[in-house]
Automatic annotation (TrEMBL), chain A:
GO terms for cellular component: apical plasma membrane; endoplasmic reticulum; Golgi apparatus; transport vesicle membrane. This is Cell cycle control protein. Pfam families: CDC50. Residues 1-24, 143-167 are annotated as: Disordered. Belongs to the CDC50/LEM3 family.
Automatic annotation (TrEMBL), chain B:
This is Phospholipid-transporting ATPase. It is a multi-pass membrane protein. Its main location: other. Its cofactor is Mg(2+). It catalyses: a 1,2-diacyl-sn-glycero-3-phosphoethanolamine(out) + ATP + H2O = a 1,2-diacyl-sn-glycero-3-phosphoethanolamine(in) + ADP + phosphate + H(+); a 1,2-diacyl-sn-glycero-3-phospho-L-serine(out) + ATP + H2O = a 1,2-diacyl-sn-glycero-3-phospho-L-serine(in) + ADP + phosphate + H(+); ATP + H2O + phospholipidSide 1 = ADP + phosphate + phospholipidSide 2. Its EC number is 7.6.2.1. SUPFAM superfamilies: Calcium ATPase, transduction domain A (SSF81653), Calcium ATPase, transmembrane domain M (SSF81665), HAD-like (SSF56784), Metal cation-transporting ATPase, ATP-binding domain N (SSF81660). Mg(2+) binds at D403, T405, D802, D806. NCBIfam families: ATPase-Plipid (TIGR01652), ATPase_P-type (TIGR01494). The keyword Disulfide bond does not apply. InterPro entries: ATPase_P-typ_cyto_dom_N, ATPase_P-typ_P_site, ATPase_P-typ_TM_dom_sf, ATPase_P-typ_transduc_dom_A_sf, ATPase_P-type_domA, HAD-like_sf, HAD_sf, P-type_ATPase_IV.
Length: 367, 1094
């Protein structure tokens, strides 16, 4: 039974206004007899009784459990591989690089790993940092979106928010701010070591890692159509920690300057201190072989980014993806749990409804 | 102390002496020592502000409110640099609130200024240097002679010098002062009465000596030294500012009290602000939340510093501080951090709560005025709301104090019966028919004397409607114009005089000292020698007349207890029996007696009266003495019974109030027997009730003894097993079938009981389901209300009355209700709500009160809940560092979540109004502020925290898994995380309200779904554009990206449902396992019977 219904409002028992008196001249203070003023607006008056919510709970249960199972299975089918290359451990090939960091010499190290399962379809390569507070208030604010949007004035005079990464040697820094200054600059290269021990580089796509809107709208190089970024940026200084200026991030003009996708990805600050950012995409092959077949691989790291000072860790992650994103069992589990609870409560409610529901109603009608 | 303050504030000038000396026309004595006294000028200032002090003073007043001050502090903190939110977020709403209030107050003050200017600038005519000069009202000085014409109000307190009438009298009404509508005659001293022209006034040399200004409207005595001998002046000589001259062409008077010293101004009392119980609990909750706020801010600060202790966290290489930050002092930084957190979390105490509550109260109160059920067709009056602050208090009333006359009754007196010389008569068709006897004609002489006495012993005035100017009433008297209308200060007198007119003895009018009556067509003139005015202590009034035959006779009329003891002859016993019989029928009784004076006796009486009236010291006491001397050895003539009809549906109303758990007390000035009989007839007392009486107590000890006796009687009869009845028992008992008790107290006994035995008295009262207090003075009514109000349980009281004598009680009670009755509009003006009939009280309390209470209670709780939901995720995020979004912060309370609750709080109907009215017991469900109890408050707060945790950790787990949520492998950032939490929050909070809503009008649907839709549309829009003038584009396309992720959608659904389903379960379980009567009645009304066939 549905305890709720559209309240059929009684016909108003009042005579409308003073019209009955015939004389329009008689002005009374009589309030208007409108549904609004008399608080008699037609209304739906639902009541939460066991009877009403029972079906809802059963439906939630019956819908959520399959969804949960579906999500869980989907998530489980996703393959993920994670490799920590920080080099805190003496045995790690990157130990030396992590210890002796200086900005001039580039330090390289190589790690070997093997995949037990083949990775089908597109494989996404992430780098992950931990203990890195990209969400610190001071840090998040330290950027100038106008400058990044190609505004000439902001290029010459960056926002105050960028302090202390605003100017260097009386030249405005482009891009200014702490976020840009601390851009991740390790270079990761992936090699497949085929069964006969030969290293084959895997081609990594660096396009499509940033949000489309960021790449095409939010971030723009200054100077408009001027394709010579060197002249555009000539009166600016590079961020202090950078090895090369912003106009040398890439040779491809579509991926250089502020619209460099690695840069854009970095500028999208992470929510939590342990985060990963999309680094490269490994496009799937056209043939039937998996994108990353089972076997041995090596990761060549150009070790530039220091994390030892804040006890950070650096990781490389390889992951396939489903329509719902990466490996994330949480949603599936949550749906299954909530669905089961709802179903169980539905049963309890059914019991209550039979035991108490009718008694209440009938006793009240009788009274 | 108060006096000192008032003096400092300029209300009272410092008093140099007890009297002030006023030289008429300011002719000071040329010789002798004369110290000029300083008097206030005649400017009336009711406004609070001037143009110059408006802004500072108004701001000061506004920031005295705790909440406003708190928001000001927050705002100031935000102005300081380095806070996470911009000052606009709290500055704008604060500015809005302050401005709106300031504009409202400024407008009101402007109106007051306008009124003041109108009054102060009104043209008046003053006699100066021998001619009539027109000047402005504010220029009148003490001592000026002022001319006032017909239908004008008096510009200052004047002593009447002369009128255009030969005898120097004039008629005034004091409607605007005390609500009495009758015409009153005021007199002048014979010596000045002749000075009817300006020229003759010029030659007048006189001095008035009078007390310093005081507020009592009815006390005034002074002496006028008109050369010699001194005359005593009393209230009958004083024309009060604000009163209006009637039926008199013009008068001259000398100003004695001017401006703010006039009695009207001294009586002007600012209505003290009444606060509702809900507001009080709101303040308690606020303080708790302030505690939570401080705790969160301190905790965050401490955690921050604990975390920052290591340099690698405080200042990692990627996130260096500026030099300025590095160099500022530690303590300063600590404080500024603390303040920053305070500001970030301050939304937990939302300023919009105040705005919404104010709006809800203001808009919601219209429904009372619009209600057709509260509209009285006959008098064309609808309910009126004077304060919207107390709407919800109507749902909390525990005690109703009601006046009887005019409130329970119509205040339409109808003469019914009389007893003449021991024989009872009834009026039938304008004839007196003796009871029990058939056509036996009554004894003519005695009947005639009785009727004459009734028609002469009064202070009734006659108004001739069409007469222009007073002229001579007698010129019309012969024609006996039908337009003649009686005006009397008490409706009883009017009814009596009208009754005698029907029976053939017509009072035609009084002219000076001559009263004329027409006895069965024959005119008789009586000379009025003295009037012994009515007063509440003597409870009788008398006139001394000279008969046409020259004989002098006294007629007395008064309460039987005030007349019978002094009667020596006549049918005293029979009359007493008759009076009691009348009283039992609910009639108001008056006893009439007379006394014939011999010439010597009259001489003596006249002399003593004159002495007493001219006495300067202790005049009142001496007058009472003389009155008592005169009003004795009376010959009893008879008694009258006047019926005061009960109002419509009083019985039903009182019964439903009682069922609603409200105790009804009747407070009346009427006499014991009448009051009891009216109480019985209106259902206040039941026949089955055990009536306890505490009346006619003379002494303290006697009163105490009686109280103890009553308490014992109560205990033994009602609760034999319980020695000490606790309030809890009382509550149960009133519902059970024990004998109910009613208590009757009279004024005198009450004052004794209140003086020493307040506790005992309260104990007895609480055990009685109905209490009747009779013979109450206005101030006593207020005292009783205050007594109940301040008793330990602090019950919510409601006072309802119609007359000026109920004003004190109306102002004292938590809720004051005025009945728009016949006794002027004084009560209405001082009330919080005004209704036309007593019966409307039931709907006002049971339906409107119930609705308002539920609405505001949910509103308040929901607001706190919503802001806990809002702020806690931010607090939690502090552990992971957080930047909040200003725009969303500001809009959360204003745009996304405020409209549904406002609409809810205007339209919610938990149960159908008819059910509420037909089942008054439902009112008990909300009594004692039960919906805002600490338990429910904790529940809501807990719910808020729970939901906040679910939002936050739900989103955290989703994102914290550190994987992409998008089908293209790209990552979300911190802004997306915030937006996800926020989206879930807006949806959950809105749906939570939807769960609370029982009454879904199209408006609820519109705002509920509209708010969610608006949130989505706004977010899409806000994130869809690179905003040209904004520095940061943090939100750009965040929302679209979020919505493009399937996982995000799944997460939103699961989180919202996880938040809400336990709440649904809780509601259902409670409804089925522990249903409140409200919930039961919901089901019974909603379910059509046939569905039960299941």
């Amino acid at each position: 039974i549905m305890a709720s219904s559209y309240g059929a409002k009684e016909e108003d028992g009042h005579h409308p206004g003073s019209a009955g008196l015939g004389g329009a001249a008689i002005r009374t203070k009589k309030p208007d007899n409108t549904a609004f003023k008399q608080q008699r607006l037609p209304a739906w008056q639902p009541i939460l009784t066991a009877g009403t919510v029972l079906p809802a709970f059963f439906i939630i249960g019956l819908i959520f459990i399959p969804i949960g199972i579906g999500l869980y299975v989907t998530s489980n089918n996703i393959k993920e591989f994670e490799l920590d290359y920080t080099g805190t451990d003496m045995s790690s090939p990157c130990f030396n690089c992590s210890q002796s960091w200086n900005s001039t010499n580039t330090c390289k190290c190589e790690l070997f790993f093997s995949l037990d399962q083949p990775f089908e379809s597109n494989v996404f390569m992430y780098y992950g940092l931990s203990n890195f507070y990209q969400n610190h208030r001071r840090y998040v604010k330290s950027r100038d979106d106008s400058q990044l949007n190609g505004d000439e004035r902001s290029l010459k005079e960056p926002s105050k928010e960028c302090e202390p990464y605003r100017t260097n040697e009386n030249k405005p820094i482009a891009p200014c701010g702490a976020i840009a200054n601390s851009m991740f600059n390790d270079t990761l290269d992936l090699f497949y070591i085929d069964p006969n021990g030969k290293k084959r580089p895997i081609s990594l796509t660096k396009k499509g890692i940033a949000w489309w809107t960021d790449k095409h709208v939010k971030f723009r190089n200054p100077g408009g159509s001027n394709s010579n970024l060197t002249t555009v940026f000539k009166d600016t200084a590079k961020p202090v920690n950078w090895h090369k200026p912003v106009y040398e991030l890439d040779v491809d003009i579509e991926n250089n300057g502020f619209i460099n996708e690695d840069f854009i990805v970095w500028m999208r600050t992470a929510a939590l201190p342990t985060f990963r950012k999309l680094y490269r995409i490994i496009q799937k092959n056209n043939d039937m072989t998996p994108t990353l077949p089972r076997g041995n691989y090596s990761l060549a790291v150009t070790y530039n980014y220091p994390v030892r000072s804040f006890e950070g860790r650096k990781r490389m992650i390889l992951s396939t993806i489903s329509w719902m994103g990466g490996k994330n069992p949480f949603l599936g589990i949550a749906y299954i749990t909530v669905g089961s609870i709802c179903f169980f409560l539905g049963v309890v409610l059914l019991f209550i409804h039979h035991k108490y529901g009718n008694r209440n109603n009938s006793s009240d009608i009788a009274s | 102390m108060i006096r000192w303050i008032r003096q400092q504030l300029g209300f009272d000038p410092p008093h140099q002496s007890d009297t002030r000396t006023v030289y008429i026309a300011n002719k000071f004595p040329q010789h002798g020592h004369y110290i000029p006294q300083r008097f206030a000028d005649n400017r009336i200032i009711s406004s609070k502000y001037t143009i110059w002090n408006f802004i500072p003073k108004n701001l000061f007043e506004q920031f005295r409110r705790i909440a406003n001050f708190y928001f000001l502090i927050i705002f100031l903190v935000q102005v300081s640099p380095d806070t996470p939110t911009s000052p606009i977020t709290s500055g704008l709403p604060l500015f809005f609130v302050i401005t709106v209030t300031a504009i409202k107050q400024g407008y009101e003050d402007w109106l007051r200024h306008k009124a003041d200017n109108e009054v102060n600038g009104a043209p008046v005519f003053v006699v100066r240097s021998g001619s009539l000069v027109q000047t402005r009202s504010k220029n009148i000085r003490v001592g000026d002679i002022v001319r006032v014409a017909k239908d004008e109000t008096f510009p200052a307190d004047l002593v009447l010098l002369s009128s255009d009438r030969a005898e120097g009298t004039c008629h005034i009404t004091t409607t605007s002062l005390d609500g009495e509508t009758n015409l009153k005659t005021h007199y002048s001293v014979p010596e000045t009465a002749v000075s009817q022209s300006v020229s003759r006034l010029e030659s007048l040399q006189a001095v008035v000596e009078c007390q310093q200004p005081e507020a009592d409207l009815y006390r005034y005595h002074s002496q006028s030294d008109h050369p010699n001998p001194p005359h005593t002046l009393g209230p009958e000589n004083l024309l009060l500012r604000g009163a209006r001259l009637k039926n008199t062409k013009e008068i001259f008077g000398v100003a004695v009290y001017t401006g703010m010293e006039s009695k009207m101004a001294l009586n002007y009392k600012c209505k003290s602000q009444k606060r509702s119980a809900v507001e009080k609990s709101m303040n308690t909750f606020l303080i708790i939340y302030l505690g939570i706020l401080l705790f969160e801010a301190i905790l965050s600060t401490i955690l921050k510093y604990a975390w920052q202790a290591e340099n690698k966290w405080d200042e990692p290489f990627y996130n260096q501080k500026t030099d300025q930050e590095r160099n500022s002092s530690q303590i300063l930084k600590f404080i500024s951090d603390f303040l920053a957190f305070l500001v970030l979390y301050n939304f937990i105490i939302p300023i919009s709560l105040y705005v919404t509550v104010e709006m809800q109260k203001f808009l919601g109160s219209f429904f009372i005025g619009w209600d057709l059920d509260l509209y009285h067709e006959e008098s064309d009056q609808k309910a009126q709301v004077n304060t919207s602050d107390l709407n919800e208090e109507l749902g909390q009333v525990e005690y109703v104090f009601t006046d009887k006359t005019g409130t329970l009754t119509e205040n339409e007196m109808q003469f019914r019966e009389c007893s003449i010389n021991g024989i009872k008569y009834q009026e039938i068709n304008g004839k007196l028919i003796p009871e029990g006897m058939t056509e036996d004609s009554p004894d003519g002489a005695e009947e005639e004397l009785f009727l004459k006495a009734v028609s002469l012993c009064h202070t009734v005035q006659i108004s001739y409607d069409q007469v222009d100017g007073p002229g001579d009433p007698f010129s019309h008297a012969n024609g006996f114009s039908p337009q003649m209308e009686y005006y009397a200060s008490s409706p009883d007198e009017k009814a009596l005089v009208e009754a005698t007119k029907r029976m053939g003895v017509t009072f035609i009018g009084s002219h000076g000292e001559i009263m004329e009556i027409k006895t069965f067509g024959k005119a008789e003139k009586y000379k009025l020698l003295h009037v012994l005015e009515f007063d509440a202590d003597r409870r009788r009034m008398s006139v001394i007349l000279q008969k046409p035959s020259g004989e002098k006779v006294l007629f007395t009329k008064g309460a039987e207890s005030a007349v019978l003891p002094y009667s020596t002859s006549g049918e005293i016993d029979k009359t007493r029996v008759h009076v009691d019989e009348f009283a039992l029928k609910g009639l108001r009784t008056l006893v009439v007696a007379c006394r014939h004076f011999s010439a010597d006796e009259y001489q003596e009486v006249d002399r003593r009266l004159h002495e007493a009236r001219t006495a300067l010291q202790q005049r009142e006491e001496r007058l009472v003495e003389v009155f008592n001397f005169i009003e004795k050895d009376l010959e009893l003539l008879g008694a009258t019974g006047v019926e005061d009809k009960l109002q419509d549906k009083v019985q039903e109303t009182i019964e439903s109030l009682r069922l609603a758990g409200i105790k009804v007390w009747v407070l009346t000035g009427d006499k014991h027997e009448t009051a009891v009989s009216v109480s019985l007839s209106c259902g206040h007392f039941h026949r089955t009730m055990n009536i306890l009486e505490l009346v006619k107590q003379k002494s303290d000890s006697e009163c105490a003894e009686q109280l103890r006796r009553l308490a014992r009687r109560y205990n033994t009869s009602a609760h034999p097993f319980c020695e000490t009845p606790s309030p809890l028992y009382t509550l149960f008992r009133s519902e059970s079938h024990f004998t109910q008790h009613g208590l009757v107290v009279d004024g005198a006994s009450l004052s004794l009981a209140l003086r020493e035995h307040e506790k005992l008295f309260m104990e007895v009262c609480k055990n009685c389901s109905a209490v009747l207090c009779c013979r109450m003075a206005p101030l006593q009514k207020a005292k009783v209300v205050r007594l109940l109000k301040t008793s330990p349980e602090k019950p919510i009281t409601l006072a309802i009355g119609d007359g000026a004598n109920d004003v004190s009680m109306i102002q004292e009670a938590h809720v004051g209700i005025g009945i728009m009755g016949k006794e002027g509009r004084q009560a209405v003006r001082n009330s919080d709500y005004a209704i036309a009939r007593f019966k409307f009280l039931a709907k006002l309390l049971l339906v409107h009160g119930h609705f308002y209470y539920i609405r505001i209670a949910t509103l308040v709780q929901y607001f706190f809940y919503k802001n806990v939901c809002f702020i806690t995720p931010q607090f939690l995020y502090q552990f992971f560092s957080w930047m909040s979004n200003i725009v969303y912060l500001t809009l959360y309370n204003i745009c996304f979540t405020s409209l549904p609750i406002l609409v809810y709080s205007l339209f919610e109907q938990l149960v159908h109004p008819h059910v509420l009215q037909s089942k008054p017991a439902l009112y008990r469900d909300i009594s004692k502020n039960s919906l805002l109890s600490f338990k429910t408050f904790l529940y809501w707060t807990f719910l808020g925290f729970c939901h906040a945790f679910i939002f936050f950790f739900g989103s955290y787990t989703l994102m914290g898994e550190d994987t992409t949520l998008m089908g293209n492998g790209q990552m979300f950032g911190n802004w997306t995380f915030g937006t996800l939490v926020f989206t879930v929050m807006v949806i959950t909070v809105t749906l939570k309200l939807a769960l609370e809503t029982h009454f879904w009008t199209w408006m609820n649907h519109f705002v509920t779904w509209g708010s969610i839709a608006f949130y989505f549309i706004f977010s899409l829009f806000y994130g869809g554009i690179i905003w040209p003038f904004l520095h940061t584009q943090d939100m750009y396309f965040i929302f679209v990206q979020l919505l493009s992720s399937g996982s995000a959608w799944f997460a939103i659904f699961i989180i919202v449902i996880t938040c809400l389903f336990p709440d649904v379960i809780k509601k259902v379980f409670y409804r089925h396992l522990q249903p409140t009567s409200t919930q039961k009645s919901q089901v019974s009304v909603r379910l059509p019977p046939q569905t039960l066939q299941l």
